[in-house]
What does this fold into?
Amino acid sequence: MKSLILSLLKIGGISLATIIFAVVIFYFWASSNGYPREKYDEVVSYRAATPGKKDEITVITYNIGYLSGLTNNKAVDRDKKLFDDNLKTVIDALKPLNADFIGLQEIDLYSKRSFKVNQVLQLAEELSFRQAGIAINWDKTYVPFPYFPFSAHFGRILSAQAVLSRYPIVNNKRIVLDKVESKPFFYNAFYLDRVAQVSEIKVNNRSLILINVHLEAFDAPTRRKQTEYIQKLLTEYVDKYPVLLVGDFNSTVPPIPENPEPTVDILLKTASIKSALPPEALNNPEIATFPSDKPEVKLDYIFYTPKNIEVIEWRIVDEVKQASDHLPVMVKFRFKD
It folds into this structure.
């Protein structure tokens, strides 16, 4: 009897060790990075020419939601036609605006979920941009979001923020922001990096700093820390350069019960920058950017340094319809002498 018990314990121990080993192997495989690290902040060049000297410059910020439309973050089956149709809608809407820069969030490069298409390349070539600065923020083999169905978790996700530019990008830096401290390590291991992308762009012999961000969506304390970091980051540039700060700040204006203290207020109260959309107008639902089918709140902003940039025009680009769950913001400006 004693020998039987020992045999069972031995078998049980071996089985438990096997399970633990398998879990460890799966964890390291699933959370591994497949894209070359040296390309995480690369600058890619295309065949378009640099434009001549212009007095008016146009910038757009757009959370493109990897062209998944209103299905973003939903556990639904999608076909390639959805992505092709949404790409055409975006190109038709943005081409007439002839933007000089576009700051993009949630854009895919060779991801299973978007049929392994390099969306940065597609947009850059179709809209005749000279360069793209890339900031990879999701490079995983296994992504457990959304939680169901389980089968949807497998397959590489390679996603990024990107800056499309008609002018030379002379420097492109990727800064990973704070993770959610209240979440366990395995959650953060599979979660996307929240990134501040800092691109230095040469415009008519003048350096412009464009900071493209996508801040934490679900945890307000983390989003506040990230916003405070962005506020500090600005101090490195605002005294030396014209600066544009664009992106999805995931902070609602007007406030909502889930977000009663908008963290974007930190930036709205920062003296060195100014919202391109007048702060007094931000509560107006007519300039909301999310959700794109029935906009109720503003998550997407463009800030600028008023001492050396003058805003001429701004608007919400609703011509993109529901190609993403967000709507883009467009601002036309000129440099002050």
In short: The chain is about 25% helix and 30% strand.
